[in-house]
Each structure stands twice: as C-alpha cells, then as structure tokens.
Amino acid sequence: MEKLNTNSFSLIETLVALSLISLLFIISIPNLSSFEKQILKTETEKLFSTIIFLQQKAVASNKGQTITLDLTQNSYSYLKTSNNLSSHVLQQKIKFGVVKNSKGPPSSPKNLILHPIRFPIEEKTKKFVIKFFGDGKISPGTLYLTNKKETHMTAISIPISQVSLVRKYYLEKKNKWSLF
Question: Cα separation of 121 and 72, whole Å?
C-alpha cells in the first residue's frame, strides 16, 4: 500500500488561504485612506496650535513674532526663544498643497485655488511668513495641506478683520468646506 504525502497543502486549502488574505486586503484599503486623513488632520492641528501659541506670545511680550513656511521643504519654523529656532517638518505623507480643481477660500469657495500658501513672501528669505503683532492681530491669509496623493485637504485661514481669528477647515466634498 502506498503512503500519501501529508506534508503539502491541497489546492482547496491554498485557495481558501488566498481568498482570506484577499478579503482582509480589500477590507483594509478604506482604513488606509482614513489613516492618511487622520495624519493630515493631526499635522493641521499642530500648525494651528503653533499659530495660536505665537499669537499669544506676541500679545504677552508685546513683540512681533513670525512663522516661516517653507514650501520646498514642507516645513515651518519660528523663534521659540530669542536664539532658539524651532522647526517642524511635515510628516512624509503630508505636504503644502491643494486638491486639483478645488475652490477657496474655505469661508467662500468661489475661485480655483492656484497656490497652497496665500501669505506674504518675505523679501530676504523668499519664503512665506505669517506675522503676529503685539496687539493680537495676525497677517491675513490661508494655507492648504494635503496628503501626497492629493485626495484630502485641510486649510488654516486667517481673515482680514478687527480681531484675528484662526480657523481650521476640512474639505468634505468637492468645494464643500467644514470647520473642525
């Protein structure tokens, strides 16, 4: 009598295993998108907190403050103390950018967004800056962050007003912004 080889997988066992792996992969794809969205919101929250911190620091010290936005390095920096520069590079999956054909500003989306940063450029450094004044005002503008695939987008906006308000927005659907 011939002995069967029991050390190998049958065709059915292999197909079942591959089917289960495929099913898990299909289920995890939407979660990866959700993960990127959460990373984007976290980076937006960090930058928002830095802006609020610098506004309060300018008021408390009655001295102007600035934050420099570097589009090419996907980073921003500011003076933490008189000679201590603090820099933050955005996470690898996040950049200053816009979703194609999206409209802004978030409070009134009427025009195509052509550039991810709408703050003035400093002549010396040729970089974008947000200025904070001792009276609590902040130079107006908007900046946009996206994931590398440009499927999700957030914005931090500072409107022209008597009192500088800083707002965070998330692009829900095409040209529909929501505060977060």
Answer: 14
pLDDT tens column, 90-106 = 999 999 999 999 999 99
Structural domains in the chain? 31-179 (3.55.40.10)
3-state secondary structure the chain: CCCCCCCCCCHHHHHHHHHHHHHHHHHHHHHHHHHHHHHHHHHHHHHHHHHHHHHHHHHHHCCCEEEEEECCCCEEEEEEECCEEEEEECCCCEEECCCCCCEECCCCCCEECCCCECCCECCCCCCEEEEECCCCCECCEEEEEEECCCCCEEEEEECCCCCCCCEEEEEEECCEEEEC
| pLDDT < 50 positions in the chain | none
In this prediction the pTM is 0.80
